Amino acid sequence: MTHEENIILQFMRANPESLFSRKEIGRKAVKRTVFNENPRWAEVPLASLTGQGLVEVDDSGYYKLKK
C-alpha cells in the first residue's frame, strides 16, 4: 500500500460513517501546500483503494470506507 493510500485511509477512518467527495479527500487529507501543488493527487490512490475493496464509491461519486 502506498503512502498516499495510507493517508486517505487514515483520514476516512476518523469519520468511518461519513461520505466524502474526491475533492474533499484531496483537500483535507494532506497539508494545504500539497493540495495547492496538485489538486488531483488523490485520484489514483482512490481508484486503487476502490479496486482493492477497501473503499467504495456511490453513484454520486462520494467515497466511504467499505464495511
Question: Concise description?
Answer:
This protein is mostly helical. The protein contains four helices and two strands; from the N terminus they run H-H-H-H-E-E.
Structure description:
There is one protein chain. The chain is 49% helix and 9% strand. It is built from 4 helices and 2 strands. The protein has one domain (3-65): Orthogonal Bundle (Arc Repressor Mutant, subunit A), CATH 1.10.10. The chain has a two-stranded antiparallel ribbon with strand order 1-2. It has helices at 3-13, 22-28, 32-37, 43-51; strands spanning 55-57, 63-65. With 67 residues, it is mainly alpha-helical.
Provide the succession of SSEs.
Answer: HHHHEE
Please tell me the CATH architecture by its name.
Orthogonal Bundle
| Residues in helices, as a percent range | 40-55%
Characterize the overall form. globular
Note the gap between the termini.
Answer: 19 Å
**Helix-strand category:** mainly alpha
Whole-number total of structural domains: 1
